[in-house]
Amino acid sequence: MQEEVVRLHQEEGRTMVFITHDLQEALKLGDRIALMRDGRVVQLGTPEEIVGSPADDYVREFVRDVPREQVMTVRTAMRRPSADQDGSGPAVRPDATVSEAIEAVARAGAPARVVDKGRCVGVVDSDTLLGVVAGTEQPAPPGTQQPKEAV
Asked: What is the DSSP letter of 102?
């Protein structure tokens, strides 16, 4: 049924409201998710915003067991590329999951370039990706696509 909901949404391009008590289902189907408690919205945002920046302890506990690498994108982990990193290494999209980037970095044994519209906008490496998985990297503020400065 989930696949059918996704297919209909893509084909029709209409706004859909899907109500579920299953967080994994909400993360898979939702572009935006509203988490409610006692009839009130506790947090509204994208799956990445909710998992990466829980609004309070209730939401933090609710998303505690979510595999971050399957929800968070490389936008959260990327840093500015150095001059020598613009043209080498595997390429991943800015909206690729951290899980996809981990695979690319592991296969290449080198950092991956984050490429948007043919331009290298950032770089991810094993340290930055592991920081996102561990929850030690702070997600970029919503709507921000600027990579972090290289350290």
From this structure: H
**Short-list 65, 42, 118, CA closest to 34:** 42
Among 31, 24, 28, which Cα is nearest to 49's?
A: 31
Same domain, 78 and 130: yes
Q: Are residues 89 and 57 in the same domain?
A: no
Instruction: Give this prediction's pTM.
Output: 0.75
> Which residue stretches of 1-151 are H helix?
2-12, 23-29, 47-52, 57-62, 98-108, 126-134
Q: What is the pairing mode between strands 112-116 and 119-124?
A: antiparallel
Position 12, amino acid: E
For residue 141, tell me if it sits in a domain. Answer: no
Q: Please tell me the total count of domains within the chain.
A: 2
Q: Which two tokens stand for residue 116?
A: 């948007």
How many C-beta atoms lie closer than 10 Å to residue 24's C-beta?
14
Torsion of the alpha carbons at 93, 95, 99 and 104, rounded to the nearest 10: 0
Computed from CA positions of residues 31, 60, 128, 108, in that sequence, does the dihedral angle turn out positive or negative? negative
pLDDT digits (tens, 9 = 90+) for 90-120: 999 999 999 999 999 999 999 999 999 988 8
